[in-house]
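Task: fold both queries, return tokens.
Query 1:
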Amino acid sequence: MLTITKPKTSVDNPPSKTLADQSLWFAIWFMTWPLLINMFVQSISSFGDVWIAGRLGSNSQAALGMGGQIFFLMLLPQIALAAGTTTQISKLWGAKEFVSAQQLVRKSLQLSLFLGVVVAIAGIVGGTWMLQIQGASPLVAACGSDFLKFYLLALIPGYVHYVATGIFRAQGTPRVALWIQVGTVVTLLTSEVVFCLTPFHYGISGIGMAWLIAESFAAALSVVCMRRGEACLARSNQSGGTSVAAGQACLTPTSAGSGASSLRDLFAIGIPASMRELIWFFSGYFVLLALSMLALPASGQASWTIGIRVEEMFAANPLYALAAAATIIVGQNIGAGKIENARRAGWQIAGIGFLLNLIVGAAMFLFAEPLAKLMSSDPAAVTNAKLFFQIVAASEPFVALWYILFGALLGAGYTVMPMIVTAIGLLAIRAPLAWYLSTQTGFGITGTWAAIAVSNVLIGLAAVILFRSNAWTISLGRKSL
């Protein structure tokens, strides 16, 4: 049983072992199973959003998808901060530079709160305009505006929660993040039922209210865990009785070390990582725009929302877990000077993901129609979502290579080339191909889904080539000069 104990490690009494001191298979298992459960729990929240929006109608489902695009755009500073923080703390932890790691923790959390406030205000001011440029119909735009008023306020606590999650994981304490996520999702789902179905009937606005309440709970609990040192958890016994205690994410003053250079490196790593997400956002915008040019655009956009959310639940979320594990294990091994271990970890985790997504892709293809019917009562949306599952399923193993190997490169701090590859795959290939196949060839929405599948395969193959190269290891040598 997992128990929260009084901190047993600190800067003056650091952990005897980090993940870099363990076998690779142990480190992969130790990090991955809590992350997999965490992502599964998180995916339940996405399922809940889509299911409740489906009960409210296609306009609400389309508004949820478009609102999610806007929310995703507002997360870019958070992604940059969290990516850089996770990578740098992983390296510092692997190198056992605990004082510098703690200083970076404090600075990152303070900055996350500030950025959350700024971005939430910007999103609320420009939210309606961003719905309109995605091609939202008047009814969808009205639903989306009601939803965003509350959904975007959740960015403020959400920034703190997201960065704190990265910190817990980077220090090798993923179970802390897991328990916080469980509490967050329970709070979210309960609030959505109360605000959207019974006893209140606030419509899609209720989903936004629920997210605000849940993220506020998560941020508060994350800070409490850090202040109490509950990131120091009793670890599973290993051979010799040594534990992998990861230390505490202290918010108390430290006496030595300098986190300034690490903070600069944080943004050098994090900004290209966040630009990859911006590229993803624009590719989603172009897909929605292509769908808006077809007959029954609301049903097409609703089916895209269904497809993305189901894919996220069964395929992408496990890959996020494996990619996060790759980032941390690679980062800690690089911090410890074990470059070959870092390389092997990347390949081993990518192999796991490839096999996992072979199974997921087969299931998506075989159960395409039941999945679509479960997520919508609109016949047109069901038909289009079924096509999405059947066509995109074949590309899912390559999505695994893309996510995990780029996650491993993030652990190395090598983020510029993955950003360029993503830009080529999503903007130079997916976006124009989706427009051409869906509007110029008569394939309609089938062409849109085909463009997504083709770009997935190409980016996955490019990720393999990039990780096989020595470019990222050479960059490590430059940074050490």
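Query 1 returned. Query 2:
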Amino acid sequence: MDVKIEQSWKEHLNQEFEKPYFSKLIRFNAFKSTIKLLGKIQIELILDNEKRFNLR
């Protein structure tokens, strides 16, 4: 797996990047970022609807 990291760190950690736990960690972080984005979108939609229907 090609990880963007400083070369000196990459030399020491390269073997770890190939282990199953690391790909699980990458997928988990992607999932967490998606959930965070969806939460922001939901808040924007709620605020937009409040303005549109004068709910405030």
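Both queries returned. Flag for query 2: The radius of gyration is 20 Å.
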